[in-house]
Amino acid sequence: MKPGKGTVARVIELLKYIAESENPSSIKDLSESLNLPPTTVHRLINQLVNHGFAERSSERRYRAGKEFSRIGALASQKIELVNYVTPIMHGVVEACDETCLLGIYLPTSSSMMFVHKLDSTSLLRYQPQLYKSRSIAWGASGRAILAWLPHNPMLRAINTAPPSPATGIKLPTLDAVLRQLEIIRKNGYAISNGQQTQGAIGLAAPIFNPIGQVIGDLCITIPEYRFKKTAESQLARLLVDGCQLVSKQLKTSAPLEFPRSR
Q1: Predicted local confidence at residue 74, as pLDDT
Q2: Is 105 helix (H, G, I), strand (E, B) or coil?
Q3: Does residue 257 belong to any structural domain of this protein?
Q4: Which domain holds residue 12?
Q5: Fewer CB under 10 Å: which end of the chain, C or N?
Q6: For the chain, what is the domain count?
Q7: Residues 236, 166 share a domain
Q8: CA torsion 113→119→125→130, rounded to 10°?
């Protein structure tokens, strides 16, 4: 490593080195390879150990930690999921000409965020912000995840939910929310009107990983004036079928193609 680099650059180089090393490394190995004083390496590696990004063996050697592996797996999963979902999203937009979004569940913060979007051809459309954390207690995009969470994470998300970002109202009673989520599970999708954005209708269906855990969803967002209640079942079917294909793809890694015969 060149001298004069800041702490962040040093930590990045340290993480890269321990991740790429076939065997655990000693302080001496790291010091010599990165051209850093042993005291600096020791200080940085201890911080990584404290945060789970590195692990210390009984021989006082260091390797990548579980938290580092978890973060890497999450990032890889998101890239993989976008690749799997994009052809499905194209199919949804082609079928209904409304904006389609991919949402990812963020379990540590009981939230979700949109990570991919395909727009409709209409000039009048909503533009939800990508990579911004949103509560899963509000909107179809949030509740299509919330409804399929295990009991404890579900309760945590409900109990810590902020007011609606669109209206400022608070969630109803816990029993009322649980009844709403039961209906979502029964239907296989969520629908909302103006919970996240005033004047916006949202429909969303869940995506599951290979062991059946909800990891995100696909959502259609439509200006209220353009939404026809009679089209709800058709739009929901597009999303549910598409999400089932994605979930199947994640299990089998089979080639995925959105059905066109609608």
Answers
A1: 61
A2: strand
A3: no
A4: 7-64
A5: C
A6: 2
A7: yes
A8: 20
Q: Measure the CA–CA gap between 223 and 220, rounded to whole angstroms.
A: 10
Residues forming beta bridges with residue 111, ordered by sequence position: 106, 135
pTM listed for this prediction = 0.71
pLDDT of amino acid 256: 42
Sign of the CA dihedral running 193, 195, 199, 203: negative
Q: Indicate the helix (H) or strand (E) that contains 152.
A: helix 151-159
Nearest residue to 234 via CA among 82, 98, 83, 86: 98
Task: Identify the CA nearest to 10 among candidates 63, 55, 47, 60.
Answer: 47
Q: What 3-state class would DSSP assign to 200?
A: strand
Q: Pick from 101, 87, 86: which is nearest to 140 by CA?
A: 101
User: How many CB atoms sit inside 10 A of residue 83's CB?
Assistant: 12
What token pair was written down for 86? 């994009």
CB atoms within 10 A of CB 240: 18
| The dihedral sign for the CA sequence 131, 135, 139, 142 | positive
Cα separation, 94 vs 11, in Å, equals 45
Q: What are phi and psi of 75, to 5 degrees?
A: -65, -45
Could you read off the pLDDT tens digit of each residue along the chain, which spans 262 residues? Answer: 444 578 888 898 998 888 888 788 999 999 998 999 999 999 999 999 998 888 888 778 998 887 776 676 566 556 678 888 999 999 999 999 999 999 999 888 889 989 899 999 887 777 788 888 899 999 999 999 999 999 999 999 999 999 999 999 999 999 999 999 999 999 999 999 999 889 899 999 999 988 899 999 999 999 999 999 999 999 999 999 999 999 888 876 544 444 443 3
The single residue listed with the structure tokens 């039961």 is 182
CATH number (domain holding residue 19): 1.10.10.10
